[in-house]
Write a structure and sequence with these properties.
Helix content is 50%, strand content 13%. The model has no long low-confidence stretch (mean pLDDT 92). The two termini are 36 Å apart. It is an alpha/beta fold and 375 residues long. It contains 12 helices and 12 strands. The strands form 3 sheets. It has a 7-stranded mixed beta sheet, with helices on both faces. The chain has 2 domains: 102 residues, no CATH class; 230 residues, Spore Coat Polysaccharide Biosynthesis Protein SpsA, Chain A. Its EC number is 2.4.-.-. Pfam families: Glycos_transf_2. InterPro entries: Glyco_trans_2-like, Nucleotide-diphossugar_trans.
Length: 375
């Protein structure tokens, strides 16, 4: 009975990951061609206590190769207590005139969604792009979005996020996890049932946001400005969404600096995953969690003789191969092949880490940007 159930879960998991790989392949790789810029963009950047990151972010804004009369940067100050506002004002005074700052004065259980909504209200262009103040924007970022919009009829466009300055094992561990998530995100788009996106690189029409009442329905959940709005758009019309699959439009950020911050980040992600409305997302999450749990349970079962070593190795190798294919394909897209030598060690650690986060989420709140949130 144990053997049959184990094999069944393993095969279902392998089929799921294979479907994401298939979906990943189906999404065409975008190639930027010379086109006359036409699209106006309002880039919304909520921030809180980002004095260490804002100079680098604003420098990348300054280097964007896109006509300045066709985009604006709206930074929404979410009750910062450091020198963030002063840094922004200095950049504006020194010539970054298409950058403005506003204050998010209201208080709610979802401050980031509130900050984005406030920024959108003052946006002068119909296309909104959200990103974060701890990110670096690629030089051809807006060109890629503009060309993609001119070529398609999408109303919401997701694009990749990548880590830079990857040096430690913790960085590589997070990078491989992110590669898996990006691969899954693209795969969902390719399968016609997307359920993941990253708010650090997400674009949508202002009129779409208004027509669907923005974040209404998820305002009591602290995070999830990206996935909940994506799932709302897909539910309304799945043909309205597309994925901008190119490294030229990939926003970069830094991995969490320590395990404590990483755990807090994953607890935040776990909190929003329990409110998903996409059936595909829910089923996928359950299958992945079951597979990780099975791997942990098989260790004592194999030691006690309830499962043969051959069966245990079959399960482990099947999962490792499926995961590696998805991560490898995404690493090629984002030019992160250098992290792959750590794949085996990271894969052994990940089920332990994943189940630990699931269990911890039932008992623990999480802290983010100096605020404590309950699940």
């Amino acid at each position: 009975m144990v053997f049959i159930l184990t094999i069944y879960i393993t095969l279902v998991y392998a089929i799921l990951i294979a479907s994401f790989v298939y979906g990943f392949i189906k999404v065409p790789h975008f190639k930027l061609k010379a086109t006359k810029p036409k699209t106006g963009f309002s880039v919304i950047v909520p921030f809180r206590n980002e004095e260490a990151n804002l100079p680098h972010f604003l420098k990348s804004v300054k280097e964007l190769a896109y006509p300045k009369h066709l985009f604006e940067i709206i930074l929404v100050n979410d009750a910062s207590s450091d020198k963030s506002a002063a840094i922004i004002n200095t950049f504006i005074e020194n010539g970054l005139h298409h950058v403005s700052m506003t204050q998010n004065t209201q208080k709610s259980t979802s401050p980031k969604k509130e900050a984005i909504s406030k920024g959108i209200k003052s946006a002068q262009y119909d296309w909104i792009i959200t990103t974060d103040a701890d990110c670096l924007l690629p030089k051809l970022w807006l060109q890629c979005y503009d060309a993609f919009i001119q070529q398609t009829n999408y109303k919401l466009i997701a694009a990749p996020v990548n880590y830079f300055d990857v040096t430690s094992f913790l960085d590589r561990f997070q990078t491989m996890d992110l590669l898996s998530l990006i691969g899954t995100s693209i795969g969902g788009f390719g399968l016609g049932d997307p359920f993941l996106a990253n708010g650090a690189n997400l674009a949508y029409q202002k009129k779409l946001f208004t027509a669907l009442s923005g974040f209404e329905g998820s305002t009591k959940i602290a995070s999830g400005d990206d996935v909940f709005f994506l799932q709302k758009v897909v539910k309304n019309n799945s043909g309205d969404v597309g994925y901008l699959k190119t490294i030229q439009a990939t926003v970069e950020t830094k991995a969490e600096p320590n395990w404590q911050n990483l755990i807090s980040q994953r607890l935040r992600w776990m909190a929003k995953s329990t409110h998903y409305t996409s059936c595909f997302a829910i089923v996928s999450g359950i299958i992945v969690a079951l597979m990780n749990l099975v791997l942990l349970l098989l260790i004592p079962l194999t030691i006690l003789g309830h499962l043969s070593l051959q069966s245990f190795l079959f399960v482990v190798l099947t999962k490792f191969i499926a995961d590696f294919i998805l991560i490898f394909k995404t690493s090629r897209l984002l030019q992160q092949e250098s992290v792959l030598p750590a794949f085996v060690v990271a894969s052994v650690l990940y089920p332990v880490f994943s189940i630990f986060i699931v269990v911890l989420s039932f008992f623990s709140s999480y802290t983010w940007k100096g605020r404590t949130f309950k699940k």
